User: Fold these one by one.
Assistant:
Number 1:
Amino acid sequence: MKKVLVLIVFMSSMSMMAQTKSELLKHFEAYYQQMKSQGDIQGVINAMTHLNVLEPSQQRLDTLAYIYVSEGRNLEALNTIGIDNNATDSNINTEVKALALKALNQPKRALVFYEVLFKKQPNAYLAYEIADLKIQTNDLAGAKASVDYGLSNVKEGMKKAYYETQRPYEVPMKAALTYLKALVVYNMNQNDNLDQAIGLIDESIKLSPNFNLANLTKEALLAKKNPKKE
């Protein structure tokens, strides 16, 4: 009789726990939707975290990491999903790792994930990012190949955003890729290729006169070409 009583209590307890979990899931799902409708990003993060604790899901972790990286919280994004390159990773998971590692100035690590994305869906946007990272890691031959691919596959209307000024601005992707081509050419031989690099930067500025970064780089190269006499 005592064993039967213990079993009844145990089963009742399990039923109550299941009911409580179900109620909590409904609560946080409703809370998530409410925070989303209000545009409360921290509230969305809190709700998603609670939902994942109650019912763990890789999809939820990927979404949570994407929210973090969208808010510039790159370490938190990587702490959520890690930095390993897994064959089973979703596209969102891979993109988050690429974006976060690049933002954290880890070009070699970021490059791994950008190349995974490029293999799945090659395009001029990813070619630009890969070329930029390869310039940073001094893989100039690889950077040139990526720039050439980008220039051969760039489409009308593609834009690249830059953030070095107080107000972010956009330039045509062709201008952005031409600018990277100038950097590759210059870094291959900083003395012999100086004029060619300046010419390419002029091409990028012609495509987009508001290209602040290209204008600044041109000024720096011209100063090297024509140093002021003291």
Note: Residues 18 and 24 are 10 Å apart (CA to CA).
Number 2:
Amino acid sequence: MTIRVELSRGGPSLSPIVAGAWRMAAWGWSVQERLRWIEQCIELGVTSFDHADIYGNYSVEGLFGEALALRPSLRQDIQLISKVGIKLVSARRPGHRVHRYDTSAEHIRWTVDNSLRELRAEQLELLLIHRPDALMDADEVAGAFESLRAAGKVRHFGVSNFTPAQFDLLHDRFPLATHQIELHPLRREPLSDGTLDQLQRLRIRPMIWSPLAGGALFTGDDDASRRVQLALNGIAQRRGVEPATIAYAWLLRLPSRPVPVAGSRRIDALREAVAALRLQLDADDWTEIWEAATGHEVP
């Protein structure tokens, strides 16, 4: 049975683990292999797929859409997420002179239209502003969101990597459905900078990118990484699961009820993430990992 979770009141319903496709261009897969990956994700109950226009130097959405076109009926079973607002200097975008952010209404609308063409879809379940833009006009962004929703191109909207104040500014103009942030034992700032407190107050579930610190939770050789590895391994042995499952469970234990984005080509890695949905860490285990990361006991 497929499980969905609602990110906010009246917001999008996504799978509790989201598949991140950002590395797909580097996998070097055939279109049939890409389709099989999508199918295997769905079989695991991972039905939501996270994209951005810039991923793979503007190529990943097209690679995903090409695979999906082999079996169009899958579209009704999945939820598509994309991000907008970063301009890369790229041969694929000859008009981009400098690497910068762009949250103008024109760029948001153009990018959505292009993403839909690349994904071979008629609608995105969720669109996020990828990075905070110092030149962002909140009223202009809200107007772009309204027009995209009215046109049926995007159902829900959110942001990524914003500060609480930046989130408040745009949320004041247009109801945001989620905030995608980086969070793991080696990056704990959202636990104390007001980000998660704000989302819990608003009853908005965050999405978490890089939940395994890009693999540093298991391969990092600095002191903090080594301490976290020992803690994760010890708890995993006691609970009879993989260390990655414990790392995901550490996030899922938070009362803001995060939705992690698991970006891996390995289906076994996605299984380890899904396994965390059936496991709840107690406060002692959670704190043991926190203390390992910080190198000291709670104050």
Note: The chain has a mean pLDDT of 97.
Number 3:
Amino acid sequence: MEHYAGIDVSLESSSVCVVDASGKIVRESKVASEPAALIGWFASLGFELVRIGLEAGPLSQWLYAAMRQDGLAVELLETRHVRDAFKAMPVKTDRNDARGIAQLMRLGWFRPVHCKSLAAQEVRAVLTARKLVQSKLRDMENSVRGILRGFGLKVGPTTPRHFAERIRDLVVGHENLQIVTGGLLSVHAVLLREFQAFEKQVRALVRQDIRTRQLMTTPGVGPIVALTYASAIDDPDRFSSSKQVGAHFGLTPRRYQSGETDYSGRISKIGDAAVRTALFEAAHIMLTKPLKGCTALKSWAMRIARRAGMKKAKVALARKLAVILHRMLANGTVFNGEAKSMTGA
């Protein structure tokens, strides 16, 4: 008889449930959230499993890679899909979640998620850390501005490099403010130094990755957009068609059809929010800056802007860029602004 398993992963231990083809629970247990412990537990069952499911999460990719390498038929499940499937549960526990995942494996009612390569995960870690430091640097500058504004001291336009000098000039003669801003500027200096280090690391990653340099031949696509997109796609061949990429990153409209009701709503915003943001920023640059080499693409987007507004035009252009960049990765080519596909629907 066929058997299926579900794993609900937690930090220290994971709930595991095994069911047979009829849905009857065969074995349940709590196992340490370590690859060796889970592999050993499944080996002790004495029978093979058709599928093992675990929900995508912080530890899941690590566990998935190790279990796959050991030959287990494990699948990584989309978190949103699993969450919606369990909404009818009156009681939510780790044990019930493991049971539910096992039943999803048995029924085949699941959507597998691509487990990114280690290299792609490392690039994403660098980009996430850079974004965090950049955010805290901006928060620090805004906080200092807010403190001084209460005393009528206006910082005005400045740059990160000259920000500290400007603050010190403003607080001359204010002893208490000098103490306060001195401590905050020390933190600011550390954040600025670390942010510059991340910027240097990003440039190094771009130099090492030919795919990223190919993507950067696209007008409006810089190092951050290219690295974000390339690390999210990871393997271009996992998409059978480039047109699927727009929907994958939540850049296509929602649709609701039931009986006589049929309407399309706003974009779904499912998938990787960082990629969606990066593509929208690239579209914004392309439509608002005088860039060369994208006349046909920009004209296409501006026709949409005249008909539906600039914001919808940027979203449409972001979706178009997602398709174009994927085709560039799949074919290993650079941007061609004169290609007929640029102005397609």
Note: The first helix runs from residue 35 to 43.
Number 4:
Amino acid sequence: MLEKLAERRETWKTIFLFITIVTVITSPFHYAIVNLYPSRIYVGAIMWCPAIAAFITLKIKGRKISSINWNWGSWKYIRLSYFIPAAYTIVTYVLIWTFGFGSIANSETILDWGKDLGLFGIGTLNPTAITIIGITLLGTVEVIRASATTLGEEIGWRGFFIHELRKVLSFTSVSIFSGFIWATWHWPLLVYYSNNVLLEFITFFTVIISMSFIMSYYTFKSKSLFPAVIFHAVSNVYIQKILPPLTITTKGAEHWLGENGIMLAIVTSVFGIYFWRKAIKENL
């Protein structure tokens, strides 16, 4: 962290400049989603706003875009950044199935999922084959596709923002502050899509801040933004497109499932605490 007061003040100015810019340029797309139509085009545009805000901030401050950690980093952290979000999502849904908040999809549900994925017309596929092919394609091709949009977010949040914060804050404070800002940035989408706004705000903020601890850990360890890109994409794909279709919701237990569900908040909190303690131990 910076010691000189003048340097700390300048860093805070940069931090709040970035927050202001990302808020301003994101607002039209948030408005479009909430008041016009929730098009994927608007969502994709939103996810690239943090990158654009980071580039503008660097330009205003007279710094080069090359100062962002563009290097790929160690494959170790890339692999772990795939495994960890897949793991906490799988644990979440195993617990959901175990405690009866939902059940594993039956053959009819899986066949419907196969139709949605376009897996018919290539021969006779049984539910097991559909499940294997669906998970494989979504876990590879869809993760690569999703990375094109999560890259935009992560250039801003993990490629730029947390490094500025780390100049003036501890690892713990960086993770909490950046997670809170990142979660708050999503609030119009939460309001639009939520069925229980208060509950889902609490669970969503818990999940995002917990993820922030893990992603900050891998970003600082790898000195690269790409583990966060992979982590974010894998988390989105598994929690939105792989596990929910393989689950039949128990009536009255809807608030336990999904990316704003109580169970994911509990599980990611455990993972977040583990990585927080790990980072403190390693003096990050």
Note: The radius of gyration is 20 Å.
